[in-house]
UniProtKB/TrEMBL annotation:
InterPro entries: At1g61320/At1g61330-like (IPR053772), LRR_At1g61320_AtMIF1 (IPR055357), LRR_dom_sf (IPR032675). Residues 11-166 form the At1g61320/AtMIF1 LRR domain. This is At1g61320/AtMIF1 LRR domain-containing protein. It comes from Taxus chinensis (Chinese yew). It comes from the Eukaryota.
Length: 217
């Protein structure tokens, strides 16, 4: 049964009074085409639940920035099958500064993705399209990082990476800059249609102590 944006607003307001901590929301983003210009973004109403600890979204639209106040208790965010615009994605992540677990899976439309999360420990990214995404990530506590669909990858600052997986099923991995040695790395996987040799060499030179290496084309 379809649910309209105003029904969603009422639903979230009711559950907020019960200190909602976990929310899973499946939507048909095609339905947003019927919304008028005066209708708020459907995701705006998630801000009515400041006690959220985990949030999972399927099929939502991130073409406009959701009006979220900081969700300071949110530690897990999973978004699956979504069309995004870079500014909206950046704004959403900025409103979740305490994230420890982040999964963006089957995301379409991302071009330049900038992630700056000081408490992030696990990050899984899967960008759908021609594999030409630029990615910058700053996460000093990052231990597990899986990325698919980026051509340029930069992991900034200090980190504690133990598992790293880089893949590009549609395009070319042109550059990987992980800013220093991967001294704690235990598992490394490199997959994809095509890699620049400089990208391969840079990763391998930084991961000389890795215990498990996977390289599949």
């Amino acid at each position: 049964m379809p649910i309209f944006w105003y029904e969603l607003a009422n639903l979230v307001r009711v559950t907020t009074s019960r200190t909602l901590k976990h929310l899973e929301l499946r939507m048909d983003n095609l339905g947003e085409k019927s919304l008028g210009p005066s209708c708020p973004c459907t995701l705006d109403y998630i801000a009515c639940s400041p006690c959220l600890e985990s949030l999972k979204l399927w099929g939502v639209s991130l073409k406009q920035l959701p009006a979220w106040t900081p969700l300071l208790r949110l530690h897990t965010l999973e978004v699956v099958g979504v069309r995004v615009q870079d500014t909206a994605l950046f704004g959403m992540l900025r409103a979740c500064p305490m994230l420890k677990n982040l999964a963006l899976l089957g995301c379409d439309g991302a071009k330049i993705v900038d992630i700056d999360l000081q408490y992030l420990e696990q990050c899984r990214l899967d960008f759908y399209g021609i594999g030409d995404c630029f990615l910058n990530i700053t996460a000093p506590k990052l231990k597990l990082f899986e990325i698919q669909g980026a051509a340029w990858i930069r992991i900034r600052g200090n980190h504690s990476l133990r598992q790293l997986s880089i893949a590009n099923n549609a395009g070319k991995v042109n550059k990987v800059d992980q800013c220093g040695r991967l001294s704690d790395l235990e598992s490394l996987s490199m997959r994809g249609v095509q890699w620049c040799w400089d990208a391969i060499d840079n990763v391998l030179q930084s991961a000389t102590d890795v215990k498990n290496l996977g390289d599949e084309n």
